[in-house]
Amino acid sequence: MDNVLDPLDQFTFEAERATGVASMPHIFWVYDRPVDIDSLRTFQHLLRQGSLYRRVQPSPLPFGRHRWVLAEDPADIEIVAMPRPREELDAWLDEQATRPIDPEHGAGWHLAVLPFSDGGAAVSLVISHCLTDGIGLFTAIAAAADGHDSPISWPAAGSRRRWQALREDVRQTTRDIPSFGRGVAAAVRLARRARNDAAGAAASTRPLRLPADASESFTPSVVTAFVDAVEWDTRAQALGGTSSVLLTGLAAHLAQRMGRVTEDGSVLMKVLVNERVPGDTRANAISSLSVTVNPATATTDLREMRAAVKRALTSHPETRDDERAVMAFVPLLGLLPKRFVRLSDNTVVSSSLGAVEPAVVRPDGADADLFGARVSYPTTTKASMDSVGGVLYVLSTTALGRVSVAVTAYLPGCTNVGYNSNEALRQNLSNALNEFSLTGTYVGAAPNNFQS
Q1: pLDDT value at position 33?
Q2: What CATH number should be reported for the domain holding residue 294?
Q3: pLDDT tens, 254-295?
Q4: Please, where are the H alpha helices in 278-398?
Q5: Which residue from 99, 116, 111, 24 is spatially nearest to 445, judged by alpha carbons?
Q6: Which domain holds residue 404?
Q7: 8 Å CB contact between 422 and 90
């Protein structure tokens, strides 16, 4: 098996190293019963037999392509000894996001269990985005939960002698040279499109201002709401959209509420598109649509936004090919000092993962009572987060009759005390859902007593 990283995967790895900001798919299951720990250990054993049982081994060349190698055995499942109230679930998930996750040295993912004081429990699985995206993680979870043992034979770390690694990586770089020219041409085309988009949408944004406490350690806020799946789909149809377009509309509306808009009030959206195929070993088998939308009518009419997404889909193949061509330059990121790497923008991300396979909701052999997915960020500094323009990432997935809507947010330069807190974000999401005539229930609140 070819273990050379796909250019997008290497870009994800290099960008995290350059900026100090990493993102992590974060899955959780909630139970109204105790978890079967023996079955969960079997699930963990099978999970580390497949595509996730790997880590990144950087090339010995400063401009070389990195490779996948076999990971070391992960730690045993973390089981919290002292049960905690169900109301503390949200805080516990935030704590799990701070566990050491390292796609190069390991461990690349972490599985944990929190017993509730009322007899229930929660399970958390957090993993580096350098190892997989959301759909890739769901695929691995479903295979492990179904008991499939399909090991992938990644080479052992250090299996190449240094001279062999240098020779092979030089050869790989030589093969990549023709793609550099295509990358230059693609970069020119993308720059022209970006200028045209900026001219049409007045895309300049307010300058990023480093706060006085820029070196302070912190993690972006994350909240998750659950909406009845039938209610979600019915509302999407009533507004002239689809389930995924409704998520885009909600993300745009949140962006407007939180001030992440251009000078003319538009919102720059990045709508993620799944490109994973059977047998795909890429960590990030995704691309994105760049869409400029008007959030003003999102709560009453999604037809204009749906049309904008369709137009972006029409031109997507050409744009996607250009973006992948530009990835030829990714290894050069490793040669640049961190101060020269700036990836900031004011883009809002909308990612609809759709309905999960039934097996995804039963890691211990039986269905959970609630399933959710979110994007977490490990502890970083405000300066690092500001350097990438902050974040507004809206993610949804459907399972067990509910749509989970997770929002990860940090607004740079905001001096309002508490604005970037979980409480403020939950209030923003609650108000936004109400304005879409949707009812949300929230993670970390008492059962049957946490509706918006």
Answers
A1: 96
A2: 3.30.559.10
A3: 999 988 888 889 999 999 999 999 889 999 999 999 899 999
A4: 303-326, 382-387
A5: 116
A6: 1-452
A7: yes
